[in-house]
């Protein structure tokens, strides 16, 4: 195991999060795969270990802020100090803006913004106390720079997470903590594959410059790059990886 390469990935039970775990483990990171579905996490961790990597499952609900301290304590017991956090967990509710309820709004914001905020500060507090040069990667979206009808709150939350990366980066710049955003374009996962196979999904794909959507492995090199302990000159930035979908 490489020193200073233990990473906690939220939303790790499927989609981008699961692929982030695979890519980081392949690069030598010890992975803490965190999500609510522990059975899915165990399967992913077994897959990683079978390939020669190191991974541990961690039950975590990123909307349960009061559980963060105990969850990070558990992660440290399993794998030692955490050096990088990937705030990947997120979701959306597809509704017109005028149809969103306060409960809908809170659901999206709690998951996409509030949870990452407080999980980041939980780890940053520990890093400052131990002198650890931590890394945080907040997963944004093409919707932080492209208005998508029916996803007003989601787009707002992703714009906010990119700004949060800048705020954290500036506040912690002299603490050795680097914070950046990875903002993917449209990526086909098991969660949205059915949509991209429908006529509306195919019509959306046809509007893209290369008439295609990405796959999770298209982000492998980017997530590994942003998590590297030696990347201390890169902070407060958004890496847009969207295959030119916003051009």
UniProtKB/TrEMBL annotation:
What is the protein name for this chain? Answer: 3-oxoacyl-ACP reductase
| Protein origin, superkingdom | Bacteria
**UniProt record similarity statement:** Belongs to the short-chain dehydrogenases/reductases (SDR) family.
Q: Which InterPro entries does its entry note?
A: KR_dom, NAD(P)-bd_dom_sf, Sc_DH/Rdtase_CS, SDR_fam
SMART domains listed in its UniProt record = PKS_KR (SM00822)
Species source reads Paraferrimonas sedimenticola
> Which Gene3D superfamilies does the record cross-reference, listed alphabetically?
NAD(P)-binding Rossmann-like Domain
Query: What Pfam families does this protein's entry cite?
Result: adh_short
One Gene Ontology BP term is:
fatty acid elongation
Q: Which GO terms describe its molecular function?
A: oxidoreductase activity, acting on the CH-OH group of donors, NAD or NADP as acceptor
Residue span, Ketoreductase domain: 5-185
